[in-house]
Amino acid sequence: MGNEREQSEAVTTADLAEQWHEALQELYTEFRKRSRAALKDYDEEDVHQARVSARKLLTLLQVLDPDGETGLYPLIKKAQKRFGRVRDADVLIGEFKKLRKEAESEDRDDEAKLFKRMAKLEKDERKDQRKKLSRKLPKIVNSKLDKKWKTFLKEDLPELAAQADVRRSVRELKDDYRKRRHFYQVTADREGLYSEQALESLHQVRIAAKRSRYTSEAAAFALDAKHAEDAERFKQVQKQLGEVNDRHFHIQIAEDYGPEALNVDQEHWTLFLKRLDDQLKASLESVGEL
Predict the structure, then answer these.
(1) Does residue 76 surpass a pLDDT of 90?
(2) Using an 8 Å Cβ cutoff, are 157 and 20 in contact?
């Protein structure tokens, strides 16, 4: 009886290791393919998917190798940051173009001109980030990383997969989300719903929701259906808070540029910031239960 149990456990462990192998290799293959494609013409979707696949790889590596002993996490994290900076500029340019068109359709011409100038400045920023991506990414994502990855799959993964506790990792992330949510609620009550402190703590809630979502999605093969439902809930929270974060970021970007860079007088600048602030407040008011 004891031998049969040991054999069954060995089979289960081997199956789980194979599931980890398949999930990781699929993500790494996507990451490498999208990385090469992104460097050719900076296609927005390739940049986006390279960043997403890197983020999911990082999520699984945190579960498998929380102490970073394989040395893979910091390398993929550097690549993810490089793609992230280009992706952020892509998104902002698209948003500013959309906001410009909305302003034009409502005959808010002065506001439309400001969004047009902000898009132009972001295009300059994107150009710089693309140059950095082309220069720095090949030093990170290359044949050396491929070799390190193969060694990890062959030598490290079997033992790490056997030791990994995905459910515990998900529980810890959910606990972190609840703590950040509570801190936000306390901060909003104390400092005010629209205060910088409350907005920053709400941003941390979004980050916690994103981590929980990505972990549940990337490690779905080792979890039950309940965790898939949790992932969907966190996805909705992330989306909802993403709009608030975007509105807040628009204000920060505008203030960083300032009226001089945007070539606008003080009267129109004040009106522009007020409208952005009103949009932020409207997004906050639409946030439901977290």
Answers:
(1) yes
(2) yes
Q: For residues 88 and 76, what is the distance between their CA atoms, to the nearest angstrom?
A: 18
Is the pLDDT at 7 greater than 60, yes or no?
no
Residue 222 has pLDDT above 70, yes or no: yes
**Token couple for 132:** 């950095």
Q: What is the DSSP letter of 164?
A: -
Which tokens go with 196? Answer: 């910088």
Q: What is the pLDDT of residue 224?
A: 84
DSSP state letters, the chain: -HHHHHHHHHHHHHHHHHHHHHHHHHHHHHHHHHHHHHHHH--HHHHHHHHHHHHHHHHHHHHH-TT-TTSHHHHHHHHHHHHHHHHHHHHHHHHHHHHHHHHHHTT-HHHHHHHHHHHHHHHHHHHHHHHHHHHHHHHHSSHHHHHHHHHIIIIIHHHHHHH--HHHHHHHHHHHHHHHHHHHHHHHHHH-TTSHHHHHHHHHHHHHHHHHHHHHHHTGGGS-HHHHHHHHHHHHHHHHHHHHHHHHHHHHHHHHHHHHHTT--HHHHHHHHHHHHHHHHHHHHT----
pLDDT tens digits, 241-259: 999 999 999 999 999 999 9
Locate 183 and state its tokens.
């801190």
**Length of the chain counted residue by residue:** 290
Residue 208 C-alpha from the chain's centroid? 11
Phi, psi of 264 (to 5 degrees): -135, 145
The set of long-range contacts for 225-228, using a CB threshold of 8 Å and a minimum separation of 24, is: 227/170
227/206 Cα distance (integer angstroms): 18
